[in-house]
Amino acid sequence: MEDLTFYKGSEGYLVRTKGGVSKNRIMNDPAFARTRENGNEFGSIASSGKLLRNALGPMIFKAKDSKMTSRLVKVMGQIKNLDSVSARGLRNVAEGLTNPTATTLLEGFDFNARATLGSVLNSIITVDTGTGAVSIAGYNPLEQMRSPDGATHFSLQVGFLQVDFATGAYELTQSTETVYPLTNGIISPVLTPTSTPTIGGTNMHFILIEFFQEVNGTQYMLNNGAFNVLNLLKIS
Fold first, then answer.
1. What is the DSSP string of 80-117?
2. Could you report the per-residue pLDDT of 29-64, keeping only the tens digit for each?
């Protein structure tokens, strides 16, 4: 409409003015060299975030929030900035991950900000980086878990992912999903993937927690997974 463009964003309907520099000038004018470099690097980190999401496909659809993609891209951008060998415009996540600091940026990432691991489970978690086995110290679910109203059961599952951000290759192995009743008593879960990935690359270990309500012997997920947890426990 005239010089205005209307569009719908996450906060509702927005409006902005038309205009801007032509694509041809941005792609060819030396004055926009920095813009092209920034665009190349943003495309790279967006692709890295998409690769990780795709690799986690079986798990990520069960526990994510509406801004998960943008939150993950932000972290990937911070890791890209740790690339100290590539030229500006070519810095990437694969090189950034070789910096030990990168691990601290991505470890502990919660794919569902509405239900973070720390807010749901209060116990010590240990990861065997060789087998991918995850051990949770003995805890009482009724006292040491924050569960949604109406939940009668929860499940635990772990994933062992190897992903190569340089080639795009990945392999995910998972443990059997184990269901527990939300009752008073101590449990000490040990969850082991059925196999270990063999492609090489960066090793990542995840835990998935889902909540259910059992009605007449059938378990129903609560509120489409809004309370489910998916957390990146460790990078090795």
1. HTT--SSPTT---HHHHTTSTHHHHHHTT-BS-TTS-H
2. 554 445 556 566 878 899 999 999 999 988 999 999
